[in-house]
Amino acid sequence: MTVTTEPRIDPEGAARRIAELIAEGRARHYRARDRVSTATINTLLDVLGDRNPVYADEAEAKKHGHDSVIAPATALQVWTMNRLGEEPSASPVDAAYDILRDCGFPSVVAVNSEQHYDRPIVPGDLISSTETVEELSELKQTGLGPGMFITTLFVFRDEEDEQVGTMRFRTLWYAAAQKKED
Predict the structure, then answer these.
(1) Containing domain of residue 61, as a range?
(2) pLDDT tens, 84-121?
(3) How many CA atoms lie within 13 A of 66 on its CB side?
């Protein structure tokens, strides 16, 4: 006989604890290990299959009002991602994810990402970012099970501390129904 049981969840506890993290305003910090370069831009273009000439041809970029080639805007997050195999340092974002797991939402799926570009990223820029927990939804009944949506906010800056863009990243942490065989 198959019995479906709902996992034990604590959305109120998650909401209270994550609200405390949000109120603290602490952030996870990232810093690119290298400056943006035309070589890196060209590699990104090959990977992305993007043939926009303002990314690879300086004359074309100047025709469009830029001083030099620019990086693809959609690669905003690439500059400050962890290195392959690098363990991220502990952060309030990770603490929020741990809270959601502890409160009965062990499964996660990416929902969406919204990027805003303040200015193009250009060769020579050294990009850093901060990521904070911005928002937690109330408990929702989803097709995957009961869950809560959490949004983090990345703010990207150059070495002069000028904001170059932002990204909101939203995930759903949920408790899938568990089946027990008798």
Answers:
(1) 37-70
(2) 777 767 789 999 999 999 999 999 999 999 999 999 99
(3) 19
